[in-house]
Each structure stands twice: as structure tokens, then as C-alpha cells.
């Protein structure tokens, strides 16, 4: 039986898992540092406070067929393609015949001056919650001081996430004032 390793349980990793679990001649090992998948396209909803994180996360175990798939919650330390081995932070090395690398993305500032030093990135559920916490802290300061500088938010980037965040902030505007 061939061993397939999938690194990452985001959209691509879970789509690959779904297709590979249909193959009877394969065993699949899925590795992700979370025990849940999150809807990355809805991070702005958590950041704005329009949705709690529980509305955008789903247990990975719900998509794993334990007859053909093993799920390991861990972090990938190193991939050795020559030896076909994956070193994990807290588990034994993982050997594979085929490898799917779907570890996600990195935040990008596109060279916008000051963004890296001053902005909060929004790349996962935890960082989206930090954005929301920051918004709440600024609203609290505004209520205490009435200083309008605490009402100024800059969204760095006009891609999907940036535009959706601006819209979600607008939708939550009345709630922030309470």
C-alpha cells in the first residue's frame, strides 16, 4: 500500500484528502498544526467581530475517514525529499511515497512603507481575533477620551481580504459605538 502525506488542512489539503480517500490502494496521513480547518475567506468576519470564530472553524476529524487516513496534529519541521521523510516537531518522522504540500500562505505587505512594523497581520483565526481585540481596545479608548484618532483604522491592501475587512468594519460600525 502506498503512503501519501498531506501537509496542511486548508482548502487545498482537504480537497486532496477528499479525493485521495476514494483510492483503496492508498493510506493517507494528514498533518496540520490545528485540529480544525478554518474558512480563510471569512477571517474578516472574525476580525470585525461580526462572527465568532466558532462559526468559521470545523473539526478536521469530521472529514477524515479513519479507515484510510491518519490525522496527526503537529508542526512540520523539515521535509527531506531525497529520503522521502518528514520531520515533525512532536512526533516520529513520517515516511511517504507521495507528498502533497499545502501549508498555506505567508502574509505580504507588497512593500507598503510602515506596514510590516505597524500593522497587525490577519492570516489565521488567532490573528483575526487579535485584530478584533485591537478594534475593541481602540473603541474603549475613544469612549474614555472622545479623541477621534482612536476611530481611525487603516487597512493595508485592497485584495479580497482587505476589501472584505473594510466592508465588515462598515457593517459593524453601529455595534462598535455601543
Under the CATH scheme, the architecture of the largest domain is 3-Layer(bba) Sandwich
Q: What is the distance, rounded to the nearest whole angstrom, between the alpha carbons of the first and last residues?
A: 60 Å
Sequence of strands across the biggest β-sheet: 5-2-1-9
Please give the domain count: 2
Regions with little confidence, pLDDT below 50 for 5+ residues = none
What can be said about the biggest beta sheet?
A: 4 strands, parallel
Strand content: 15-25%
User: CATH homologous superfamily of the largest domain?
Assistant: FAD/NAD(P)-binding domain
The residue-averaged pLDDT reads 93
Helix amount, in percent? 25-40%
**What's the helix-strand series?**
EHEEHEEEEEEHHHH
Question: What class would the helix/strand composition place it in?
Answer: alpha/beta
Q: Can you give a write-up of this model?
A:
The N and C termini lie far apart (60 Å). 32% of the residues lie in helices and 22% in strands. A hairpin with a 4-residue loop joins β6 and β7. The model has no long low-confidence stretch (mean pLDDT 93). With 178 residues, the protein is α/β, with parallel strands linked by helices. The chain has six helices and nine strands; from the N terminus they run βαββαββββββαααα. A four-stranded parallel sheet has the order 5-2-1-9, covered by helices on one side. It has a three-stranded antiparallel sheet with strand order 6-7-8, with no helix packed on it. A two-stranded antiparallel ribbon has the order 3-4. The chain has two domains: 100 residues, FAD/NAD(P)-binding domain; 62 residues, no CATH class.
Amino acid at each position: 500500500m502506498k503512503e501519501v502525506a498531506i501537509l496542511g488542512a486548508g482548502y487545498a489539503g482537504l480537497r486532496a484528502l477528499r479525493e485521495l480517500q476514494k483510492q483503496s490502494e492508498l493510506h493517507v496521513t494528514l498533518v496540520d498544526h490545528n485540529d480544525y480547518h478554518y474558512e480563510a475567506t471569512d477571517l474578516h468576519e472574525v476580525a470585525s467581530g461580526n462572527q465568532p470564530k466558532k462559526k468559521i472553524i470545523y473539526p478536521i476529524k469530521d472529514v477524515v475517514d479513519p479507515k484510510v487516513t491518519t490525522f496527526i496534529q503537529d508542526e512540520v519541521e523539515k521535509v527531506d525529499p531525497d529520503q522521502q521523510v518528514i520531520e515533525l516537531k512532536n512526533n516520529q518522522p513520517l515516511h511517504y511515497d507521495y507528498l502533497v504540500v499545502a501549508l498555506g500562505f505567508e502574509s505580504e505587505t507588497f512593500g507598503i512603507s510602515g506596514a510590516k512594523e505597524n500593522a497587525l497581520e490577519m492570516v489565521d483565526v488567532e490573528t483575526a481575533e487579535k485584530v478584533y481585540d485591537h478594534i475593541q481596545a481602540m473603541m474603549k479608548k475613544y469612549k474614555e477620551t472622545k479623541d477621534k484618532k482612536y476611530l481611525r483604522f487603516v487597512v493595508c491592501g485592497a485584495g479580497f481580504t482587505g476589501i472584505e475587512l473594510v466592508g465588515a468594519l462598515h457593517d459593524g460600525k453601529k455595534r462598535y459605538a455601543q
